[in-house]
Amino acid sequence: MFGVRAGSAFDGERVVPGGALVLLDDGRIVGVEPGAAPAPDGCEVLEVPGGTVLPGLVDAHVHLCGDGTDGTLDRIEEPSQDGMTAVIGESLRRHLAAGVTTVRDLGDRRFAVLDWRSSTQSGGGVYPTVVTAGPPSRALAATVPAWAAKSLARISCGAPCKNAPSARRRR
Do 88 and 112 belong together in one domain? Predict the structure, then answer.
């Protein structure tokens, strides 16, 4: 067993007075105690009086098949299966380093994220939990009117939506 005692703690709703002692066993959190609580016998404790512990973050909209650099969507067809696996793994490592312990992937390419999650590679390290929707549905694109598709594209990139019905005045 291993413990981390931090001078500050946030439980997802409020700051916990006096910090917390987080207890881990085999890489899993098995307990959270008040900061002043004694550690169990034989438990090594990392003391971080200036640190803060908080629950893992969830990023509910990621695209693991993109590397996050300029032009990534233009290059998304290019990577080989090995290349795509490397991009997914690196993206997940970056998320975890930022405190994100669960991601929801909404832009799988050729089932690469589902394949990665099912592979032995995903068990070869410490990664966030991956919830994936699979590749986008092409059937939906054929049923959405052109004006709606254009508006949805503008909404998703943050640009103004002049063509959306709610943005036009009714005559």
Answer: yes
